[in-house]
Amino acid sequence: MYNILICDDEKDIVSALKIYLASDDYNLYEAYNGLEALEVVENNDIHLLLLDIMMPELDGIQVLTQMRRKRNIPVIFLTAKGEDTDKILGLNLGADDYVTKPFNPVELLARVKSQLRRYMELGSGSVKKAALVVGDIELDDGAKAVSLLGDAVSLTPKEYGILKFLMEHPGQVFSPKQIYYQVWGEDAFGAEGTVAVHIRHLREKLEINPDEPRHLKVVWGQGYKIE
Fold first, then answer.
1. How far is CA 100 from the centre of its chain?
2. I want to staple 210 with a disulfide (CB 3.0 to 4.6 A). Which of 13, 36, 142, 203 is the partner?
3. Which residues are 28's β-sheet partners?
4. Per-residue pLDDT tens over the stretch 54-109
5. Domain range spanning residue 110?
6. Do 26 and 93 fall into the same domain?
7. How does residue 148 score in pLDDT terms, banded at 50, 70 and 90?
């Protein structure tokens, strides 16, 4: 069974698309903004994404850009008639197709089937996890290897875990409690300072000038991000 994610900030459109696709044996997921879409893709084996362009939190272009760093699944943009520039930009960034609102159900189903067939039968059927790249830093999770400007960098398991988590969500700010929970697998209970120590060690290993970091940034009063 194929897993399809529908992402649109208009719930009526999501509901309509679910009705159109219900005639085939698809397992349907839904999201209503870009951040939700990225979370669903990260935590599920999604085979195709129907993605609106104009959305809150992150728009479709931003979702596509971030997702393409790790996932090669087909993306069909859901576009309005006046979004020709965004259509072109999306296709240039790696979108596979688009359908224009209001949808023709027959055309929509045909495009979905075509993209799934291409993806599953022409050699892309398994999700390819490419190396994560942010700026000068590259992380290959398969090999558990990190490099800076092509040179290998040795990290402790917890440093690696923090870096991987942040690189999976570039530009997003996470509090020390959130980072601790993701990497240590338990609530911080006052151990947030541990995250700060590990971030400092990561900067010493990955930043040319740790006092003026280019990648690992602090957002005062909120947490950390990588960019």
1. 24
2. 203
3. 4
4. 888 888 888 888 887 777 788 998 887 666 666 676 676 677 888 888 888 888 88
5. 2-121
6. yes
7. confident
127, 119 contact by CB (below 8 A):
no
**Residue finishing a domain among 74, 96, 121:** 121
Q: Does one domain contain both 136 and 114? A: no
| For residue 15, pLDDT beyond 90 | yes
Quick: pLDDT tens for 179-202.
988 888 878 677 678 889 999 999
Choose among 110, 82, 94, 19: nearest CA to 51. Answer: 94
144: tokens are 């558990």
Please give the torsion angle defined by the CA atoms of residues 43, 135, 219 and 66, in that order, rounded to the nearest 10 degrees: -30
Residues forming beta bridges with residue 76, ordered by sequence position: 50, 97
With respect to residue 205, please indicate whether it lies within any of the assigned structural domains. yes
Q: What is the pTM of this model?
A: 0.54
Identify the domain boundary among 77, 93, 121. Answer: 121
Number of structural domains the chain divides into: 2
CATH of the domain at 146: 1.10.10.10
For the chain, the first-to-last Cα distance in angstroms comes to 36
- Residue whose structure tokens are 């558990």: 144
Residues 66 and 156 in one domain: no
